[in-house]
Amino acid sequence: MSSATDIVPESTGTAGAGTRIKINGVSKRYTGATALDSIDLTVEPGEFLTLLGPSGSGKTTLLNLIAGFTDLSEGTIEIDGEEVNNIPSHRRGLGVVFQQYALFPHMSVADNVGFPLKQRKVAKAERMDRVAEALRTVGLGGYESRFPSELSGGQQQRVAFARAMVFNPRALLMDEPLGALDKNLREKLQLEIKRIHQEVGRTFVFVTHDQEEALVLSDRIAIFNNGHIEQVGTSQELYERPATLFVATFMGESTVFRGAPAWQGDNWSLDFHGAQLTGRRAPFSGPAALVLRPESIKLAHDPAAVPDAHLRCPVTVTQSIYLGSGKKYELGLPDGSTGIARGGIVDGAGIQAGDRVLAHWDPERGALLPDTGEESIT
Ligand code: ADP
Ligand code: MG
Fold first, then answer.
1. Model confidence at 373: pLDDT above 80
2. Whole-prediction pTM value?
3. Whose CA is nearest to atom 16 of ligand 1?
């Protein structure tokens, strides 16, 4: 492709090829606020990576830095090994979809979708073919001559996807693209985005604050909190081996036993309001939180029914919730906090709200984490 145009040439890779995006020590400061503090993150070629975190945690800032819409304060961003800090947005070859549809209102659907191709001086006949194909991919075949005002919100967002994909971008960046849509439509489009990702095999970076959405879509998830990344991993890794209390409480439900552990080498013990909790892990200083997933906790009326090796804590059942596939119990802990159990009842007796029971669990199932006070309330 000639260098006459200022726009990056189309990627020549086939499906399955993908672009690596590497973020090295990137910070972004505004006067009086640090939006991102020394972020390191690599998006692997062809992967679907989601930036997940509460509002204000820095997700959009990072996406805008990758896209080149904002200048960084510190660090470097590499796309396929090339540092792009000084490369303007339109030469980075990335497709972008925002929450607001951002279509050109005075242009037809075909002209909207064909716009990136026109910028790249693709001839009209080819442009029309590729617009038609992109529209078919997003389920809007035949909509070429409509105008944005004649489309529903979901349809407008499909057009935005088609426009972002039509020039074979090196990667597709999406910032809460389904945030303005109602739940049913959102779930339908999630599955379509996943299908499109599998079909085109390109690198996708997706921003959401909705953990369910992240679970449905992602190969890996980066959990953002207050301008830094808490942990990056598959949904299974984040759920089963949360690295921080924030991750444990942001991804899925958990019960948290807090206290000041005593250490002897790698062995810790924690007196939780009289319950003696113990375990092993690499020591750390300061207060701790023992975190358990709902399915790890079993309940028993009869202490004799609790296996010897189990840890145990007396709790009050505050609610028994029928879920069809099983029951979920809300627990009142001795420190006044609330826990959740979904495990079976080991002594066979029915458990009802108001019952005083023993919560017990296999010590292998609990994770002792530093208690930073940064519990996520979801
Ligand atoms: P998220 O997308 O996770 O909701 P953002 O990246 O939009 O978070 O914002 C991260 C932080 O940076 C927030 O505290 C926000 O107030 C701040 N911020 C974002 N843009 C600006 C700006 N233009 N000027 C000042 N502060 C900003
Ligand atoms: Mg945002």
1. no
2. 0.88
3. 56
